[in-house]
Amino acid sequence: MGAGSKLNGRLLSDSEKQICGCDQESSLPLGGVSVSVRTRTQKKLLPHISNMAALVRRVLIAHLAATRNTSFLQNGGCGIRWSQRRFFSKGFPGLQARVRPLTLLIATGGGYVGYDQYGRYKDRQLEKLGIEVPPHIANEVQVTIYKTIPTRLLSRAWGRLNRVDLPNWLRKPIYNLYIWTFGVNMKEAAVEDLQHYRNLGEFFRRKLKPQVRPVCDSHCVISPADGKILHFGRVKNCEVEQVKGVTYSLETFLGPRTWSESLTANRNEDDPGTFQDALVTKEGNELFHCVIYLAPGDYHCFHSPTDWRVAHRRHFPGALMSVNPGVARWIKELFCHNERVVLSGEWTHGFFSLTAVGATNVGSIRIYFDKELRTNNPRYNKGTYNDFSYVTNNNQEGISMRKGEHLGEFNLGSTIVLLFEAPRDFTFNLQAGQKIRFGEALGTM
Question: Is 226 among the residues known to form the active site?
Fold first, then answer.
């Protein structure tokens, strides 16, 4: 063994020298180990060592990236920065909602619905105890959000679906499901055979047997349709109650009084006072109102509530929000937001009007004697109104209607609002919330 070549203080053997290829002596520090090798051997080994180090570094980076333990190495591979993705997605489960908006939306919506239902449950319990609960009115943001729902488009789609003829084998199952859901009494229908109705539209607008709805002759005003009484009484301060405690503006509901030339002159034409006073044409009279809600299971046609002449029609394109009693208690001026058709005229005691209010899936309002009327039409803009006068040079009286005569129909359930002038001693024979049928008396004088 040579005297000059040492490894850890030990002399190298000849075979070890041959393997290392040592010709000259040199000192190479490696991990605290001093190896004495010759200069030529150092020059040969250094490139191999560098290549080996680079390869090990690349393998290490690939392995750590595959296991998602690091994003990259810093400072030549000596420093490690942990992945923020792993930190938020696994280290802190409570922060997962930040990257899962659907989960957050469902949780928030479910919590709000649960809270709302609990509040309604408490209100029902208080009502059972005879305690009057004030209505919870929606704010402007809630109404705006509700109005963004494309109810007009949905109602048009529903109308087209109603006109699609059903195959014979599907008619009974579909109609029986509807009958069971909404409590329809088919024994009152003029045609009880379900196979007779080709589509849903014909079934909704089914006629009744004449004897099941006798018209009351002893009272001047009858119910124009089957439904539920939401509210009734005198109009006060130009405000009308859609349900108890929730009102809407009379002038906003009927629109500007530009149709008055078709009616009898007001008793104080020079100084009509308020909009409400301008509608009252005779001394000693007052303005009354009645709101009737037609549920989906009710008879969908409506009739003339009295003997009167219709002089003018005003169509308000608008939203088609639901008009069920719960929504009517929630949204102020609901009937002013929705699409509606106002028929104005006169009866024996002065001013008289009937308004058919549209609702969700009830964009179609039909008046039998008015072939020009088109409701829920995309060519009409919200916030406007369209007037049509039935008084012409050839017809100075307008359209004469007899009490109980067919007047129009809805495509599904909706609402009818009566506004009329009558003597002060007129009295309603009704209770809020009661069911009423077409032909039954509304009040007496």
Answer: yes
